[in-house]
C-alpha cells in the first residue's frame, strides 16, 4: 500500500505508521525530519520489506531506504542460477503483481503476448479495456 504522511503528523502517528505497516508498503514523507524519525521507528519496529521515501514538492524522490531481512538477501545470493541482483528484480516484479491485484488489473498470457485487463471486465480479455503489454521480448508465453 502507498502511504502518504501528512507534514503535520505527530510522533504518535508516525509510531502507528511504523508498527502497523505491512510488507510491501511504500511510505512517502515530505520533510527530512519525518524521514529520519520514521527511519528510526521502522528500524526499532524491525519492519520488513518496507520502502520509505523523502519526496519533494514536485514528486521527485530525494532519499529512499528499504528494509530487508538479512537471511532473505543471503538466501537470494545462494539461489542456483540467479544472481542476487536478478533475485531483487524478481522480487520487484512480485511487488508489481501485488499492486496490479490491488488496483483490479488482471494479466492474461497468450502464446505470444501479455494483455492487461480490468478485473471486472465481463467480456473477458476481448473487451475494449484490454491493453497489450510491451514486454520487450522477455515474455515468451506457453510453448
Give an overview in words.
The chain is an alpha/beta fold. It is built from 4 helices and 7 strands, in the order E-H-E-H-E-E-H-H-E-E-E. The chain has helices at residues 11-20, 32-45, 70-78, 84-102, and strands at residues 2-4, 26-29, 51-55, 61-66, 105-109, 114-118, 131-133. It has a 4-stranded mixed sheet with strand order 1-2-3-4, covered by helices on one side. It has a 3-stranded antiparallel sheet with strand order 5-6-7. Strand 5 and strand 6 (114-118) form a beta hairpin. Helix 1 (11-20) packs across helix 2 and helix 3 crosses helix 4. Residues 72-76 have low confidence and may be disordered.
Question: How many helices in DSSP terms?
Answer: 4
The structural class is alpha/beta
Coarse shape: globular
Poorly predicted regions are 72-76
**Mean pLDDT value:** 81
Portion of residues within helices? 25-40%
Spatial ordering of strands, largest sheet: 1-2-3-4
Distance between the termini: 35 Å
Descriptors for this entry?
143 residues; alpha/beta; 3-stranded antiparallel β-sheet; 7 strands; globular
SSE layout and pairing:
Layout: E1 2-4, H1 11-20, E2 26-29, H2 32-45, E3 51-55, E4 61-66, H3 70-78, H4 84-102, E5 105-109, E6 114-118, E7 131-133
Parallel strand pairs: 1-2, 2-3
Antiparallel strand pairs: 3-4, 5-6, 6-7
Helix pairs in contact: 1-2, 3-4
Amino acid at each position: 500500500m502507498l502511504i502518504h504522511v501528512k507534514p503535520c503528523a505527530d510522533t504518535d502517528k508516525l509510531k502507528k505508521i511504523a508498527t502497523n505497516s505491512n510488507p510491501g508498503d511504500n511510505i512517502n514523507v515530505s520533510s527530512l525530519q519525518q524521514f529520519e524519525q520514521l527511519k528510526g521507528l521502522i528500524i526499532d519496529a524491525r519492519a520488513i520489506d518496507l520502502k520509505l521515501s523523502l519526496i519533494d514538492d514536485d514528486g521527485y524522490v530525494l532519499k529512499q531506504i528499504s528494509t530487508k531481512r538479512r537471511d532473505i538477501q543471503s538466501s537470494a545470493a545462494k539461489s542456483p542460477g540467479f544472481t542476487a541482483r536478478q533475485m531483487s528484480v524478481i522480487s520487484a516484479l512480485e511487488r508489481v503483481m501485488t499492486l496490479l491485484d490491488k488496483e483490479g488489473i488482471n494479466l492474461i498470457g497468450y502464446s505470444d503476448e501479455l494483455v492487461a485487463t480490468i478485473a471486472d471486465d465481463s467480456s473477458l480479455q476481448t473487451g475494449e479495456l484490454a491493453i497489450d503489454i510491451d514486454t520487450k521480448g522477455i515474455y515468451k508465453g506457453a510453448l
